[in-house]
Design goal:
Elements (H helix, E strand, L loop, with lengths): L1 E6 L4 H18 L7 E5 L9 E9 L2 E10 L3 H10 L5 E3 L4 E3 L2 E7 L1 H12 E5 L5 E5 L10 E5 L6 H12 L5 E3 L5 H11 L3 E5 L1 H6 L1 E6 L5 E5 H12 L2 H4 L4
Parallel strand pairs: 10-11, 10-12
Antiparallel strand pairs: 1-7, 2-3, 3-4, 4-7, 5-6, 8-9, 12-13, 13-14
């Protein structure tokens, strides 16, 4: 995935440094440890570039590139202008000048980023009871499945309440419904695919309209009102919490 950001000639290094820090901030916002990221500035540059760096992540097999940030000067638009015979210039109303914009490019490898997130998120944890659980600790905004809804048992009307919750949540989030096996086994299945939150419907739900939320990474549980559930899930899985770390 690439972005080409057009800048005034002479300001490209300022913007290259700005994008360098902004992109590193994005990677670190994922919460996989600041120490696992580093810049690798290029000593040898492509003929069209006057600055280049890589964002590297410490994979299990060592530091490898996941993104590049390059100052490409006016090479791209200049070549288009040269071979098309058409002027590709921008009139800058602030300076009163016309110029071929310079380009600062950020380029992130989709497959590399996917591997990086999977590598960072995958865990095998030893529990107090001696069991091992497999967890994909995805940042909640990146998790493919946001929430699982689980009736404690398959009777007493709990399934119907759970399916009603699925219907309310599915228009905003990718939701799974699971009623097979014990609640513990269902929690483990959701841990293994990286679902950040499980919502359990039990007999108390019928009495007071509350459900239990279980958080994947800490395994902590707390009860909330069904009327508050949508807002709670939406806040916890929102991309906003990542974007706010960039400000």
């Amino acid at each position: 995935m690439e972005m080409q950001f057009f800048v005034r000639p002479g300001e490209e290094m300022m913007w290259w440094n700005k994008w360098k820090e902004t992109r590193m901030s994005w990677h670190r916002a994922l919460g996989f440890g600041d120490e696992n990221y580093r810049f690798h500035d290029h000593d040898k540059l492509a003929h069209y570039a006057n600055a280049a760096t890589d964002v590297e992540y410490n994979f299990p097999f060592g530091f490898k590139e996941v993104e590049g940030i390059h100052s490409r000067t006016d090479y791209d638009l200049g070549r288009h202008q040269q071979y098309s015979g058409k002027k590709i210039q921008y009139f800058d109303p602030e300076t009163g000048e016309s110029y071929v914009p310079y380009v600062v490019e950020t380029s992130i490898g989709v497959d590399r980023m996917t591997l990086q997130v999977l590598s960072a998120a995958y865990k095998e944890e030893q529990l107090e009871n001696g069991e091992t659980r497999t967890v994909l600790s995805f940042p909640a905004p990146l998790a493919p499945v946001k929430v699982a809804v689980l009736p404690l048992v398959k009777k007493d009307g709990l399934q119907e309440i759970a399916m009603d919750l699925v219907h309310k949540l599915k228009f905003s989030h990718n939701v799974q419904y699971d009623e097979k096996d014990s609640i513990g086994k269902r929690y483990r299945r959701q841990d293994a695919i990286g679902t950040p939150f499980c919502v359990t419907v039990d007999h108390q739900t019928k009495e007071d309209g509350t459900v239990t939320i279980r958080e994947r990474d800490t395994m902590k549980q707390w009860r909330v009102s069904i009327s508050e559930l949508e807002a709670i899930v939406a806040e916890k899985v929102s991309m906003r919490q990542l974007f706010e770390k960039l400000v």
